Amino acid sequence: MDMRFPKIAEQLLLIERELRVQGWWDEVPPSAEALSSVEPFSVDTLDFEQWLQWVFLPRMKSILEQDLPLPNASGIQEMAEMVFASRNVQGKDRQLQVLLKEFDALITVSR
Fold this sequence. Notes:
This protein has one domain: Up-down Bundle (de novo design (two linked rop proteins)). It has five helices and no strands. The chain is mainly α. The longest helix has 18 residues.
């Protein structure tokens, strides 16, 4: 098992918690069509927060549960920065961006 797994699992929980705190957690999943996007971050079918909830978090949890290799790099915080820069969220995104930046750092730490 990769020694980063426990810290990454904790970070995923913090990201989920922040999505819930900000009211960006959906109870109803998007359509199967929306979830089958082949575009990076599903930008053509999902809001960024939806992508985090319905694609990113489940994929990362699956990687951890199945003891699969972690990605070599992550640029999720950069995407979040671009998404939120175009919205008027009045700083609600700040903590989420911090958490995503910490996730990116955990992924890029050498094994």
